[in-house]
Amino acid sequence: MYVVAGLNTGTEYYRAKYQSRCIRWINENMANHNTRGDNIKVDIPEPLIIKHIKEKKS
Questions:
Q1: C-alpha closest to that of 25 among 44, 40, 9
Q2: How many domains does the chain have?
Q3: Is residue 58 part of a domain?
Q4: Domain annotation covers residue 57
Q5: Which residues contact 34 (CB under 8 A, 6 or more apart)?
Q6: Dihedral through CA 40, CA 35, CA 38, CA 31, nearest 10?
Q7: 2-46 pLDDT tens trace
Q8: What is the pLDDT of residues 16-26, one digit of tens each?
Q9: Which domain covers residue 19, as residue numbers?
Q10: Rounded distance, CA 39 to CA 47, Å?
Q11: Is residue 24 part of a domain?
Q12: Is residue 34 part of a domain?
């Protein structure tokens, strides 16, 4: 399990089974593209990290 978390606050923004899904979530939710796709603006509230966490077995 991977978590997208804020570096400063530790806030968890997203969880996924694969790291690639976390990267995709960041790209889809934190970047604004214009219609041509050549002007990308990234609007991230704080520096983000992707952490690997162990799943709890029930």
A1: 44
A2: 1
A3: no
A4: no
A5: 40
A6: 20
A7: 999 999 999 999 999 999 999 999 888 887 766 666 676 777 889
A8: 999 999 999 98
A9: 2-52
A10: 21
A11: yes
A12: yes
